Known about the structure:
This protein is α+β, with helices and mostly antiparallel strands. The chain contains four helices and 13 strands. About 20% of the residues lie in helices and about 30% in strands. A hairpin with a 2-residue loop joins strand 3 and strand 4 (about 90).
Amino acid sequence: MRKISLVVIFSLILIPVLSSCKDKKADQKEDAPTEVAVVPETQEAPMNELTPAEEADGWVMLFDGKTSEGWRGYKKEHFPAAWEIVDGTLHMLGSGRGEAGSKDGGDIIYDKKFQNFTLSLEWKISEGGNSGILYLGEEKLDFIWKTAPEMQVLDNEKHPDAKLGKDGNRMAGSLYDLIPAKPQNAKPVGEWNKIELTVYKGTVVHNQNGENVVEYHLWTPEWNELVAGSKFPSLNPEWADVPAKGYIGLQDHGDDVWFRNIKIKEL
């Protein structure tokens, strides 16, 4: 009887101890740090290419970074020799001839008319340089800027145009000679600027480096009054009658300028 009692007593002592050890191990297992899988960051598409998300959203590249496919000279059938494709950019070789442009250059256009769209690209200007991004253009007169609104591309520090016009309306990002870009957020010479230019049923927005800097509305009384007070009616009396559909152009203003990552989404 004594042996049996000792066994029972020992069992009663041992069972809680073993249970405590099991609970402790279970607690330790629960408290162990959980391994978290590392998800790689989403990478941007290489320059002059679209991401899968952009493709699904309807974006189309207008420049492949390697050829001039799709582009030609304004009122020409060929691509001008003074424009070159180098290091993934469309580069205008400066001639020093200012607004007259290069003898082997001239403005270039993408050979398709667009109506409602968002155009996205990056530009970089040379020291003292001037150029422009034109839209809703027509091939009527000697220069596309005489038929189309222009988003100004400029070295604001050294080019005289920055101090001409009214209230800075010839500075980078502005609707040239009509509406100044505010805020004026263009980057210094040698740095890339990113723009998005949206045209939709007469509403036009210039976005420069992530900020909307110009907004206006075509074909309204306010638009006609604005144009009437500019230099354009003396160059083209019908300038205010911007077509609903037209060409996108890049300007040869006699200075070195670079463009890349040119893409468009039709709306």
